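User: I'm curious what two different proteins look like when written out as structure tokens. Can you demonstrate?

Assistant: Sure. I'll show them one after the other, since each token string lines up with its own sequence. Here's the first protein:
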Amino acid sequence: MGNDALSGEVDLSHVDYPAVQQSPEFQKLRRTHRSFVFPVLAVCLAWYFVYVLLASYAHDFMSTRVFGSINVAMLLGLAQVVTTFAVTMWYVRFAGKHFDPQAERIRDEIETGVFAERSAAAASGEGVTR
């Protein structure tokens, strides 16, 4: 899996982390992550604030009995918990499909030295057409 610990034999002292952060692969990973996380976060926060505002200002609506002693507030509160679990499962599935493979490729390039070689070639102008 993508979270396997590095072996003690891998020397990462040569890694230019700012160059890794500037690489197109890493930038793509960040874009993919942000394009998923920020919209989902915005929707979840809006849903949470709607619940809080309803609980604060719409007492009559929230105390409406649905069945037995269960009211709208209890159902919406339970929906908050269900939403949290659903978003967590969605994130884990999305990350496993999109983030982890990209991150693993970047990590493999760093550990094997391919990234450093490619960075050095780009810095020296090799393979770059001007």
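Here's a second, unrelated protein for contrast:
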Amino acid sequence: MSTLTIAIIAVFIAGYTLIATENLTKINKAAIALLMFVFCWTLYMVNPASFIQLMHPDFKGTADSLTQFVNSVIIEHLGDTSTTLFFLMGAMTIVEIVDQNGGFNWVKNVMHSKSKRGLLWRIAFMTFFLSAILDNLTTSIVMIMILRKLIPERKDRMIYASLVIIAANSGGAFSPIGDVTTIMLWNSGMITAAGVISEVFLPSLVSIIVPVFIIQYTLKGTVGEAETHVEMKHDRAEFGSKQRKAVFAIGVGGLCFVPIFKYITHLPPFVGILLVLGILWTVTEIFYRYEHRNIGGSENFAKRVCNLLSRIDMSTILFFLGILMAVACLEEIGVLTRLGDTLNIAFDGNHYAVTGIIGVLSSIVDNVPLVAGSMGMYPIQATGDMAIDGIFWQLLAYCAGVGGSMLIVGSAAGVIVMGLENITFGWYMKRISWIAFAGYMSGILSYWFIRTFIFTSPL
């Protein structure tokens, strides 16, 4: 390992440490993440030739074209990152539009419970199943909006929000469309929809039941009247009942349609989310045009989409940008691939150990490059653990998804909840990480039991 490689890793570790101690340094995590991104790639440019030879051996260009090639590599990673960021911004905007128009009130009513423990179980199962239908990122946004209506006390809401992270990641792990990593494995033909749902559903369910069972003992008493009847502060109802129902149908129905749109067009998910946002935006503008006519066109509507766009948490977006681009640099210097090879050798092909470690690592670095590296290192085989729906691929789907819950920055759901609720890294690590780990290991144990005694071969 070269000195330059060690320096890049050191910058990443130092930046990650500052993010982890944000509550002590009082420096916004987005600023640190952006500095990590820039410093890692600046060090990379000190001697890019050695890294290009390692990761892109087919490149035969001259020294003059080396800089241009590196720039194209960075832009390619930025493009991949931007698809996630635009999906995030689109989903946040759609949810905000629906929420501002009372679209999620029915979910709040379903969640209603006088018991704090009873509410905990309802939140967990609603998040778990919504995450499988939509995706863990969008579901987390929706559930946080609902929690703000149900629980104004921030101390309690932080506990419920942490459970949302665990439940969203667990729910996304057993669905072929619930998480980016399962989508990758599904599209590459390494898992099938029927296989991953039938065999990973129970381990995913166990991984959320265990944490809920533990967390419930930290909550006592009942939810007060002020908590159960808190409503979102609207200036006034700008839309009528039929219009609000239409906004809800287009927004939530559109979110459900995004995976179908991807399947039909083979376009990235962010294209579908922008399609839904465009349609919803157009429909609301038509509604507002009608409202203007009724009131003489002098009213300034606060809930128009152009006004709601200002509510997007840009610091979270920039934090996500910095983290993903810094991880991309680690990928380009070969650290992630080398780490995967080392794990495989160290554990002598024990797939439970290898995927288990990958799951733990996915809570530290982004699970997408980890899964992508694993897919490149291990080709599909006709039979055995590496076959379609084999133990390795299904465990990888489970571990990469659920493992991200162990640290709050280990998943997209965690990052967005961290930004929306201002949960610090240290608070989550001290109170929640060990609980998420207990659920994670329980799920792996249940998967071993299922594959050993029930599904001895893939369906």
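A detail about the second structure: The chain has 23 helices and no strands.
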